[in-house]
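Reposting from the mailing list since nobody answered there.

I have sequence plus structure tokens for a pair of proteins and want to know whether others read the tokens the same way I do. The first protein:
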Amino acid sequence: MKKNKGAKKTKTLWKEFKSFISRGNVVDMAVGVIMGSAFGAIVTAFTNILLSVCTWGVPGGLKGLVTVLPAANATQAGIEGIGQKFDVSELQEMTAIYAGTKGVEVNDGNYAALESALTSKYTLHGSTYFYNGSSLIDWGSFINAIISFLIIALTLFTILKVYNWSKQKRLALQAKMQEEYFVKHPEERPAPVEPGKPAPTEVELLSQIRDELKALHSEEKEQK
């Protein structure tokens, strides 16, 4: 008996879930989310290509458009002897300096470990390493976000304009076809709707009540 109730409950829940996901709004929303994600990826790729072409002369390309702010304290100043940033071509030299701060000498056995330890404290933007504790302005990401927004906004605006234009054309065509039908079948044309009488104002309602009360009072006097 309990198994039958459990199976019936499961069947009911599955039926409700199936009905829910089959609704038009849910399906449309899911399609919209998937299409939006795919379109966002396309816009991002296009923007990266466009900016890469525009910034080909910048060292490191788009990712190299970074400004490091002056150190406000010792935690933002970087490693002693290296500073807040260094070029990728200086990695070997900076590794030797970093080893000196640790009191060790660089050799073939420990170079890889020292280099890995150094680069873990810096982040590569384009062709330049920046100290992780420093404050940066990532102009490349900022410009990328602005251009992506403008492209998406322009695309949505164009889609909306085309949709409204096609909707107006469709409504105009329907009205034209309906008018042609009524010309051929005038007996089926609906009667024009007359504008209704405007609703009485509060003052008019009070005046009507007053007049009715006066009339009622006059009738009572006449009967007496």
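The second protein, same order (residues first, tokens after):
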Amino acid sequence: MPESCAFCGSVGPLTREHVFGQWVSRTGLDLAPMRHHAGPINALPRDMGEQPPFRQTVKSFCGSCNNGWMSNLETVAQRVLTPLVLDEPGTIALEDQAAIATWVQKTALTAMLLSSKEQRENGYGLAPSEYRALYERRELVQPLDFSQFWVGRFEGVKGFSAVRVTPLTVRIPDFPEPPLPQGYAMTIVLGALLLHGVRFTTPGLQADTKTELGMPQLWPSETSVMWPVGQTCTETSLLALADGGTLRATGGEVRLQPWSHAAHLPQSAFENGAIKVPALCHKHDIYYPAALLQEAHQGQFYAFMTSCECSAYLIHTDSDRIRFRAAGEPEGIAAMYADLVGDEFLIEDQIGEFACKRLPA
């Protein structure tokens, strides 16, 4: 059966589209080969191999979309965003803001198609209606309704890039978590540039939101946006931001939280004096000392390495759970752990000696 364009639905030959436009490769960012991964945020990601950055493509769009309205968005993005990607102060003019917000949404939707066919058949990804709705707004050059976007600065590994989409629920006190997500957060990092957005997909449940980092709102907006403004996002704070952790509803007691079915691992358990947690592969468990959980409850967090038969992991403790910060070969995880700033401690318990680093406050 012929495949159809993810945006317009036309049936016919499909073309390859870069997740990041080819212009990004010409900005001057480091193009040294690196490992790339894609997949669910609460499972072991799909290893896409080692290759230069910004080469990833998806074959999901027709030539008319690819070379038409999608290409036009890339033209605006190249002109407006290149200085910011390179950490040069700049301004996003009012007349460009709708196009940049639409580019963020288009890029996030495109990146979701890097997943495997099996993952999408199992429910991973965004609804096809999101793609169709954005296509229908191509002449307006505006993001989808009930969307907000912010722009900020990222400080981390030079030339780092990432796209992350996290399903969100709108939580009301004394009500259980809804069975399905009601929106999603979008986060794009390109060099020094951070773009963050939220889209509410359930009518009547949208909330006016702001970000705790004080980043200026890109859309909707009534004035030009200076860059950089607000608190810089670091590698340490990026994951919480991408999970919607810095988004706050401006009225009432409504909260935005990641949809636990897609964002969290199953419940941890106390076993033989240690905390047992399912690994990202969903095939094995990993263990860490209960003392680290007690420390987390007191506001002191740690990083540690561990592994299962499928992968090695770099893990940070947090106030409510542990966070898998990286997965991969043991040598690479060990190098990332060694680069972390913090005093190292050895904990002796039922599972033997356990090395960890106390993370700076």
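Reply #1 (J.P.):
I read it the same way you do. The CA atoms of residues 116 and 122 lie 10 Å apart.
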